[in-house]
Write a structure and sequence with these properties.
This protein is α/β, with parallel strands linked by helices. It has one domain: Rossmann fold (3-Layer(aba) Sandwich). It has 5 helices and 11 strands.
């Protein structure tokens, strides 16, 4: 199979933008992974729906290792992800985009590494998210949001707190995360970013604020999350399409070291 430069991992709605998509099954040590291969803009890309085609995999049961291994098997060097998040930081509002630059891991039960012995590897996470992809996403988002006048904002940095799920967080947990410096909270960003680094794949994500975090609004519902994601998904797709064009062909970041 011809090498694919860019992979996308995200949720429902993204697959509809991929032209001529052909689903292939990639065998990995962690199970077979279904990957859609097609065109986004002028780029041949690989797409994996993180939660499955029918949204059947809850956050703590996603096959993160299988997904990243499948991308690696296809020769993918860059991964762009999307994540639905709750807004913690002051000023964030539903619909806003955040291109995070760091994370805090509060997951509990999911496997987080490919290296479980006898080989031991300690990867550097000083800069978890690829600066080249982040820059491309930020500039693309500025362009798309200015053109479409959606009344939402692009935040060019932020700290992502990853919780186990599938339940939403409590108000007390959100207060704790705020004190620790978290700007947004989600359930799927880790261990994806870590596993990508272990296989020397550049990785960055565009987070979509779908709600105010617990304690900052009356209640948090899955329906609200879905509604916001559906509303902004066309803009997200356009941002990714433009960003891919702006990512340099030759990697000059440190992600692959």
């Amino acid at each position: 199979m011809r090498k694919i430069r860019v992979g996308i991992i995200g949720g429902t709605g993204l697959e509809e933008a991929i032209k001529g998509a052909e689903e292939v099954s990639i065998h990995t040590p962690y199970g077979d992974i279904n990957v859609a291969i097609g065109e986004l803009g002028e780029e041949r890309i690989a797409f994996i729906p993180r939660h499955g085609r029918r949204h059947e995999n809850p956050p703590h049961k996603v096959n993160y290792r299988g997904n990243i291994w499948a991308m690696h098997s296809l020769g993918v060097e860059r991964i762009i992800a999307t994540n639905a998040v709750g807004g913690i930081a002051e000023g964030l509002k539903p619909g806003d985009f955040v291109v995070v630059n760091d994370f805090i891991d509060f997951t509990k039960s999911r496997p987080t590494t490919f290296f479980e012995g006898p080989k031991v590897v300690h990867v550097d996470m000083t800069e978890p998210y690829c600066p080249e992809i982040r820059s491309a996403l930020i500039e693309a988002a500025k362009e798309v949001l200015l053109e479409r006048r959606l009344g939402i904002k692009i935040w060019d940095s932020g700290i992502y707190a990853c919780t186990e799920g599938p339940r939403f967080e409590t108000p007390a947990e959100i207060r704790m995360l705020r004190m620790l410096g978290a700007d947004v909270v989600g359930m799927t960003g880790v261990p994806e970013v870590v596993l990508a680094r272990e296989l020397k794949i550049c990785y960055a994500t565009i987070c979509i604020v779908t709600n105010y975090a617990a304690g900052m609004q009356d209640r948090v519902s899955a329906e609200e999350v879905s509604e916001i994601m559906s509303r902004v998904m066309p803009a997200v797709i356009k941002v990714i399409e433009i960003a891919i064009k702006r990512i340099p062909l030759e990697r000059k970041c440190r992600c692959g070291l």
